[in-house]
């Protein structure tokens, strides 16, 4: 446990010095016993290429995410769901007061009945006038009716026909009003348009809402869409179908893998950027809508080079050169695995290290490709400040790449929490014993 705190404090730069005492064998003289040798961590450089990636910030959106608004103005009478509830399509979410809408519907139905009665009356009158017109025409054929009387009968028939048509139109209008009032009444119960989870509740009983009042956000969290912004420069090497790694603080596996699903072909006229979308599964609903995530889009590989962890690169304060501390000795020790955080690993006897300037060919998220040293060389990844200068002797704890990447993945907040927990368990005396 103390070794774990030892690593964490060095990585945080809370304490800059780690020392291991010299052995007190009978063959050591007094100067060697009093001399302090720093303890470092080192990993073996390897040969390969780095995946080229573009790191972006993404925003999570639920699938079929919609904002729920009322379509009418009314007072909220009941709220049927809470934040986090799972609902099905058509399930009631909110009930609005419907008394006024029921009264309006009754009035519309009454008006429809009146319009139908008036239409029947107009149809009956039309039939009566048409019968009278028929008799007048028969008499006119026999010369018993004057032309003026015939014209009057035809005019009355046309007027009655128009009145009947108007009455039928009023019936249609009344029917439309009834349908409109029925629709308004149905809108007093706001239902889920899709299956999904409910969030952002703003509906409260007694509040007055209108079509501009947002009541809920609804979406499906089984799968989500991550949106990223791509510049016109990125479009030269980023395209749909490329692998993407999504990292979020509350994802226990560390990184989720998906593909860049689509890229909008239309760029913003001012920012010259466009939107990229990543569709992905969301097991356990770990990713929440509106969450910011880190997105790495992998678009190729660098040239072959010697690979070292990013933590191995060191800017020499004496010369300003970027390089690594290298040991030519072979370190035959068992590496510390990431799962062995609390287990001590053996230190070597003091061995010489020298600072070697290197050329950085490419940088990835965890590693760098360099020229200047050979693959297989042991490079310092933790404690370069303790050597100082161009060379120096140090005891070494050999580690593997998984351990180094584990340390590089830790966030400052995680480290502080680890220290606090370890100090709480071990007590104040044990917390400083290993320093």
Assign the CATH topology of the largest domain: conserved putative lor/sdh protein from methanococcus maripaludis s2 fold
- Per the principal axes of the C-alpha atoms, what is the gross shape? elongated
Mean pLDDT: 82
Please state the structural category. alpha+beta
Weakly predicted, low-confidence segments: 1-34, 333-339, 428-435
Percent helix: 25-40%
Question: Major β-sheet, in short?
Answer: 9 strands, antiparallel
Annotated CATH architecture of the largest domain: Beta Barrel
Instruction: Please tally the β strands and state the result.
Output: 24
**What is the tally of helical segments?**
7
Total individual domains: 3
In percent, how much strand structure appears in the residues? 25-35%
Give me the Rg, rounded: 41 Å
CATH class of the largest domain: Mainly Beta
Distance, first to last CA: 12 Å
Polypeptide structure, described:
The chain is an alpha+beta fold and 435 residues long. The chain has three domains: 2-48 and 305-431, Beta Barrel (conserved putative lor/sdh protein from methanococcus maripaludis s2 fold), CATH 2.40.420; 54-67 and 219-301, Efflux pump adaptor protein, beta barrel domain (Elongation Factor Tu (Ef-tu), domain 3, Beta Barrel); 98-187. Helices cover 30% and strands 33% of the residues. It contains seven helices and 24 strands. It has helices spanning 2-12, 30-34, 99-141, 147-186, 384-387, 401-409, 412-431; strands spanning 19-21, 36-44, 46-48, 51-68, 74-79, 86-87, 92-96, 189-191, 196-199, 208-209, 216-231, 243-247, 255-259, 262-263, 273-281, 292-301, 305-309, 314-315, 322-327, 351-357, 359-363, 367-371, 378-382, 391-398. The strands form four sheets. Strands 4, 6, 9, 11, 12, 13, 14, 15 and 16 form a nine-stranded antiparallel β-sheet that branches. The chain has a five-stranded mixed β-barrel with strand order 2-23-19-20-24. Strands 3-17-22-21 form a four-stranded antiparallel β-sheet. The two termini are 12 Å apart. The model is unreliable at 1-34, 333-339 and 428-435 (pLDDT under 50).
């Amino acid at each position: 446990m103390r070794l774990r705190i030892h690593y964490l404090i060095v990585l945080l730069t809370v304490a800059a010095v780690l020392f291991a005492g010299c052995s007190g064998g009978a063959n050591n003289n007094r100067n060697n016993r009093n001399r302090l040798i720093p303890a470092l961590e080192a990993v073996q450089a390897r040969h390969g290429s780095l995946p080229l990636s573009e790191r972006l910030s993404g925003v999570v959106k639920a699938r079929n995410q919609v904002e729920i608004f009322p379509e009418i103005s009314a007072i909220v009478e009941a709220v049927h769901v809470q934040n986090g509830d799972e609902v099905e399509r058509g399930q009631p979410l909110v009930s609005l007061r419907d008394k006024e809408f029921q009264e309006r519907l009754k009035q519309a139905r009454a008006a429809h009945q009146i319009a139908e009665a008036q239409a029947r009356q107009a149809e009956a009158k039309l039939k009566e006038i048409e019968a009278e017109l028929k008799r007048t025409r028969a008499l006119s054929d026999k010369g018993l009716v004057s032309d003026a009387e015939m014209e009057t009968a035809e005019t009355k028939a046309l007027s009655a026909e128009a009145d009947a048509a108007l009455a039928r139109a009023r019936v249609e209008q009344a029917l439309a009003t009834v349908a409109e009032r029925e629709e308004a009444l149905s809108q007093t119960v706001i239902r889920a348009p899709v299956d999904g989870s409910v969030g952002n509740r703003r509906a409260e009983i007694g509040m007055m809402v209108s079509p501009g009042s947002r009541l809920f956000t609804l979406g499906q969290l089984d799968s989500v869409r991550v949106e990223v912004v791509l510049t016109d420069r990125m479009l030269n090497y980023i395209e749909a179908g490329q692998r993407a790694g999504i990292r979020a603080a509350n994802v226990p596996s560390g990184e989720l893998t998906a593909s860049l699903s689509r890229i909008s072909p239309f760029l913003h006229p001012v920012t010259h950027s466009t939107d990229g979308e990543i569709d992905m599964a969301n097991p356990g609903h770990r990713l929440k809508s509106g969450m910011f995530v880190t997105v790495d889009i992998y678009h190729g590989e660098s040239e072959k080079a010697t690979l070292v962890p990013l933590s191995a690169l060191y800017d020499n304060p004496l010369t300003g050169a970027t390089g690594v501390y290298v040991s030519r000795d072979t370190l035959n020790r068992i590496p510390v695995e990431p799962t062995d955080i609390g287990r001590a690993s053996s230190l070597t006897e003091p061995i010489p290290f020298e600072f070697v300037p290197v050329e950085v060919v490419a940088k990835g998220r965890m590693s760098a490709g360099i020229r200047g040293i050979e693959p297989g060389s042991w490079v310092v990844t933790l404690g370069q400040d303790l050597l100082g200068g161009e060379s120096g002797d140090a005891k070494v704890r050999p580690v593997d790449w998984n351990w180094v990447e584990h340390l590089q993945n830790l966030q400052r907040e995680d480290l502080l929490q680890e220290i606090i927990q370890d100090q709480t368990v071990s007590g104040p005396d044990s917390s400083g014993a290993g320093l």
